[in-house]
Design goal:
The protein is mainly alpha-helical. It contains 10 helices and 2 strands, in the order ααααααααββαα. It is globular. The termini are far apart. The model has no long low-confidence stretch (mean pLDDT 80).
Length: 274
């Protein structure tokens, strides 16, 4: 038990530092970590990715609340954008939880691995800004918001991995894009974790101290060190050469995505051959 607590604290601390340093949400690291760790506490393979995603979203709810409040205090949140995107994001989160229940765990791992590849590429080779691009309105913005909400739930990631690049490409200054994304992430993650916790039938295969797909020992073990170490990452971002760190982290993400795709693909191939 002591070893497990130490592992959770170390993983949560790492995620907190990375979140502060690079502005990424915890899910992109927490989900692979949980996929590796949860089998050791009795989570069966068919439920593995679902539990990792739901537990990751629980962490995102708390970190987004803290992050969003602090950004609001500095006046960087664009509340007009939050209001325009809110309905689409919540509908997307609701649809994402419905879709996730019907996708096999290995297939979700492949989708997540591909997503991590894309994030890795965009971190290593960021696109240049197009000054004429602006945030869309009306039906187009609702469609984009809904899609982002769906993907956040399916992948168990915070909106930062999707919303920050999108808002920044629409020429919202990066600091405001990060702040606005933090606020938008909260209702998405909260909708997802409530549905994955309260509206999932009890499963006898789940370990104790679980509700729905959320495994509370992992959530609580990761939460406090994650939140506590975010300021350290922010401090490092002010002192280190961020471009070099982004390249190194990009390579790490590529390896994580490749490992998840390989393992899930091997499991799917074995199942089909059997």
């Amino acid at each position: 038990m002591l070893n497990l607590i130490i592992i959770y604290i170390a993983a949560g601390a790492l995620v907190g530092v990375v979140a502060g340093l690079l502005g990424l949400g915890g899910g992109i690291l927490i989900v692979p970590f949980l996929v590796w760790q949860l089998p050791h506490v009795g989570v069966p393979a068919p439920l593995l990715m679902h539990v990792a995603v739901a537990t990751s979203l629980g962490l995102v709810v708390c970190s987004a609340l803290v992050s969003g409040w602090n950004h609001h205090r500095y006046g960087n949140v664009q509340w007009s954008i939050v209001r325009k995107m809110l309905i689409g994001l919540v509908i997307g989160a609701w649809l994402g939880t419905i879709i996730a229940k019907h996708i096999p765990s290995q297939a979700l791992q492949v989708i997540f691995g591909i997503f991590v590849w894309v994030v890795s590429w965009r971190m290593a080779f960021p696109k240049e800004q197009i000054e004429s691009r602006v945030l869309p309105t009306g039906l187009q913005l609702n469609a984009v918001s809904t899609l982002i909400g769906v993907l956040c739930i399916l992948l168990g990631v915070s909106g930062g991995s999707l919303l920050v690049p999108y808002l920044n490409r629409c020429n919202l200054p990066l600091r405001q894009a990060i702040a606005t994304s933090s606020v938008c992430t909260f209702p998405v993650a909260l909708t997802g974790v409530i549905m994955l916790m309260l509206f999932i039938p009890n499963n006898a295969l789940m370990p104790k101290d679980s509700m729905g797909y959320v495994y509370f020992p992992a959530l609580l073990g990761l939460l406090l060190p994650c939140i506590a170490l975010v300021p350290v990452g922010v401090h490092l971002a002010m002192r280190l050469e961020v471009k070099v760190i982004r390249r190194i982290f990009s390579a790490l993400l590529f390896l994580i995505g490749s490992d998840m795709i390989y393992n899930a693909g091997t499991a799917l191939l074995t199942t089909w051959q059997g």
